[in-house]
Each structure stands twice: as structure tokens, then as C-alpha cells.
Amino acid sequence: MRSEPVVQVQALVKRYGTKTAVDGLDLVAGAGVTAVLGPNGAGKTTTVETCEGYRKPDAGTVRVLGLDPVRQSAELRPRIGVMLQSGGVYSGARADEMLRHVAKLHAHPLDVDALIERLGLGGCGRTGYRRLSGGQQQRLALAMAVVGRPELVFLDEPTAGLDPQARRATWDLVRDLRADGVSVILTTHYMEEAEQLADDVAVIDAGRVIAQGSPEELCRGGAENTLRFTGRPGLDVASLLKALPADSSAAELTPGSYRVVGKVDPQLLATVTSWCAQHGVMPDRISVERHTLEDVFLELTGKELRS
Amino acid sequence: MTTATGTPTGTYAPRPGAAPLSRMIAAQAALETKMLLRNGEQLLLTVVIPTLLLVLFSSVDIVDTGAGKAVNFLTPGVLALAVMSTAFTGQAIATGFERRYGVLKRLASSPLPRWGLMTAKTASVLVTEVLQVVLLTVIAFALGWSPHGNPFAVLLLLVLGTAAFSGLGLLMAGTLKAEATLAAANLVFLLLLVGGGVVVPLDKFPSGAQDVLGLLPISALSDGLRDVLQHGAGMPWGDLGILAVWAVVGLAAAGKLFRWE
Predict the structure, then answer these.
(1) CB B109 to CB A149 under 8 A?
(2) What ipTM score was computed for the predicted complex, to two decimals?
(3) Which residues of B touch A114 (CB under 8 A)?
């Protein structure tokens, strides 16, 4: 899903006092779902909040739907939906009351009752916002971001702290938004979330984008992948290696347990299995380990993501 | 066609647009008023305390309120207190916590412009004040109040007083932490209740203190209302002038220094 960029950030710099939160960041996001991935303090929220018009860049330019988020805020605001990382609701307001209110600020809002039901907020009843569970508060914030039928939705860590079931419900909604032509920019420090949802992933560290591409591209672009199988101990690894492409390696790690490292594709898998067939080996427990975004991230930054 | 989750395709298809301004502001004002009337502490400040003071001090001779019926002295002061409790104390505390809980931030990215939000807040304050004035006036009449004077002068005093207190309340809410605003707004309320000519006549204070206290917005408002309602004076220009200065200074400072998050 590539077309006119919905978000275009060029050489963005944002400082807080002496601390540089965003340091010359470039980011282009097209239609579909773009995940901004990075550890805490990488500059994700600052970048997104600059796109939402909350912060003025110290240097660089930001365009969202072709508009300057600060100077053309009035034009931009009705077209975007914003989910803050936390808060945003009157402490005494009920979930449905707040959602209905945000709906009233828009010309063609979604059906509030259907949205409440969809996100499982119907059970909140007369409970005030501050007494809702963390998951309910998150889902309300999500509902408030989409109720105005925006073209572009910003979700700042939409599933942080959610239980697996609530996380799935959020993912399903993001997928439905995408299917209906809504663009989504989401920040996350969950690899799985980016892999599941995103057409495009921008990896941010220390205020810069250090890699960008589809989850597949990023995983492919990283180090090589691994194929493991078990068989009879003492197979002729040198002979196997001869059958494999030049940049591969093969080894017997423990007796009977073999590992092939290289560009693991269907061709390589076929080569390994036919070599086994020629040598009368029944490869047991054959498994392909593809690199995950998590591995890619570790390689790029040398850091654990979930810090 | 439906998706895997049973939602019809196209449900979320973009159809952006802001609601008409008047509808946004009306909705915002209605919500703000609802939040205020639902909040117990706010009601204590805006309704219970002024009512109790009016009833108690009118019926029991605690403070020497000078010649004439106590209710004629007290009602203008309590009306001034009501304005202060809503425009200053209540608005400062509510806005301070809205800022703290990201409500102002979230609304800032909604189609409602900032000035629209401030207009709605003002409307909500005015609606609350109308309810207060109606309630206190009914009680005052029941206690034998006999007001004089020009209703237009009274209205002008109430409006300027509201502007002055709103500026100061928003200045506090937009610059201090929510907890500090809560403490400070209540403290100021108490101090001005005692030292602002609300129930204690200013002439009970030493003359040096009187000159200073007389310049406070609460003193100007209670004194101006008393001049008109108790003594039947025309336009209390001096008091209106003091309130106007507070309003300009307070609103300008709030406009310049208010931090939205």
C-alpha cells in the first residue's frame, strides 16, 4: 500500500533543554499501517507528537496529509485521530459520555453505540474514568481516536499494558481501519505488534531512524537465517556443505544435531532434504528459524527492546 | 461484506470533518457544566458554603454588620463570594486537573479550537453563576432581603468580577501543578472570604490594611455590589475600575503564561 505520503518528516530536531530527544530524524509514511518501533526514550512519542501539532520542531520540517501541523492545525485536526499514551479524559466522566462528547465535535462520527460494543466498553456503565481498569482506559482512548472517522490515526503505544485478549481486539480494530482505507501511525515497543500489523516499520533509536522497511524486508536484510535438523550422528557435513550455496555454513553442533546457516529459502530447504535423501538420512525435526524483528533490532542497536 | 470481526466493510471509511463551531462550543460547555455539578467538592465551594454563610450570618448575630438588617449587608458579599468560588476557585482547580490528566492536551488535537474551549469554559462558569445567583437570591428574599439600585450596574459588576477571577484562576491552573493549584486556590478562597469584605466589613480592619484589602478583586466586587444593592448607588466606577484592571492583568498573564500540558 504505497501512495502519497501521509506523513513526511525531514531532518527533524527536537530538544528539551540540553537533552536532544529527536536528532535529525527522517521518516516518510505512506498509506496503510506504519509502526514506529524503538526502546523507551528513543524519541517515538516526541516524533509523533510533533506530527500531531503538539510540539514545534527546533529544526527540520514536518508535513502531515500535506499540512504543517502547527501552522495549519485548524485544517489538520478534524482529519486526524489521536490516542495519547495516557489520560485525556475528564476524571469524572463516564466512558460513553466522553466518547459521545468527542463524537459531537465531528461532522460525521461513527455510531457510538456500535463502537462501545465493539471495544467492550459497554460494561463500564456509570463508572467514572478514574475507576476504569487500565485496559478500559486504553480502549476508550482508542475509541476517541477513531470516532471522528479520520483519514489518519496516531496511536501512541496502543496496547502497552493490555492483556492478550484486549491486545487482539485492538489489533483487529487496526486491521479493520486499514482495510477501510484509514492510515495508521503507531508507536510500539512490541516487536510482535509491528510484525502483526505494520506494512512498514521505522526503527528509531537515539532520536534517529536507523532502519525502515516492511517487516519482511527488515528481517531479510538482517543477518542470515538458520535451518536445523536432527538425524543420525556423524553425517558427512563436508559433503553437505558442498551441496549448499557458497555463502552457507553447516555444522554438527551436538551428535545428531545439525545446523545450516545461510540464505534460507525454499531452494536451500530442498537442497538439504534431497542431500538427506541421497544419503539415506531421515531428517527429523527439521526447522527453519527466521530472524524476527527482535533479532534485527538487537543487531541494529545492541539493546534489548523491552527496556 | 463483513470483516473477520463481523464489522461491515466500510464502517471506518474516512469521512472527516469538524462539527459546526456553535455545536462544538455548546457541547463542550454542557460537558464542563455537567462535570462541575457532579463534583462534590466543587458544589461545597460554590453552593453549600455561600448558602450556609448567608443563612447563618443573617440569622445569628456573629459579626457586627453595621446599621440595618444583616441580610442586606450579607447578600451582596455572598454574591461576590459565589462569583469567586466559581470563576476563580472552582475553575482553577478543575482546569488544573484537566491539564494534569491530559484533557486539555487531548482536546487540543480535536477539531475544537482553543478559543472555543475557553469560550465554553466561560459559558459553563456563567451558567453556574446564574444558578448560584438564583438560589442565593431566593434564600435572601426569604430572609427578608430588600435590594435597591440599578440592575445593569449589578450585572456589569458580576461580569467584570467573573473576568477578573477567571483570569487569576486560569493563570494559577496553567502555571502551577494541579495539587499546588488545589491547595493555593482553597487557601486564597479562605483568605479572601475573611479579608475581602464578604461577611466581615472592611472597616473592622486597621486603616492601613483597609487600603490594601480594598484593592483586592473580591473587595471591589463585594463593595461595589453593596454600594448598589444596599445603598442604591449608581455606577460604582472605582470598584469597576479595580475589577477591570485585575481582569486585564489576569487574562493577559494567563494568555501569555498558560501551559497546556
Answers:
(1) no
(2) 0.89
(3) 11
The reply to whether B12 falls in a domain is no
Contacts of B23 in chain A (CB under 8 A): 104
Burial class (CB within 10 angstroms; exposed 0-12, middle 13-18, buried 19+) of B68: exposed
Q: Do B10 and A180 touch (CB under 8 A)?
A: yes
Domain of residue A139: give its range.
Answer: 7-220
pLDDT of residue B30: 97
**A186 min Cα distance to partner chain B (Å):** 16
Residues A241 and A128 reside in one and the same domain: no
Q: Which three cell numbers stand for residue A275?
A: 542431500
Structural domains counted in chain A: 2
The reported pLDDT for the residue numbered A101 is: 97
Which residues of B are less than 8 Å from A179 in CB distance?
A: 3, 9
**Do A185 and A9 contact (CB within 8 A), yes or no?**
no
pLDDT in tens, B48-96: 999 999 999 998 877 777 778 899 999 999 999 999 999 999 999 999 9
Domain that holds residue B45: 21-58+66-257
- A150 in reach of chain B (CB within 8 A): yes
Indicate whether A299 belongs to any domain: no
Contact residues for B184 (Cβ-Cβ < 8 A; gap 6+): B92, B172, B176
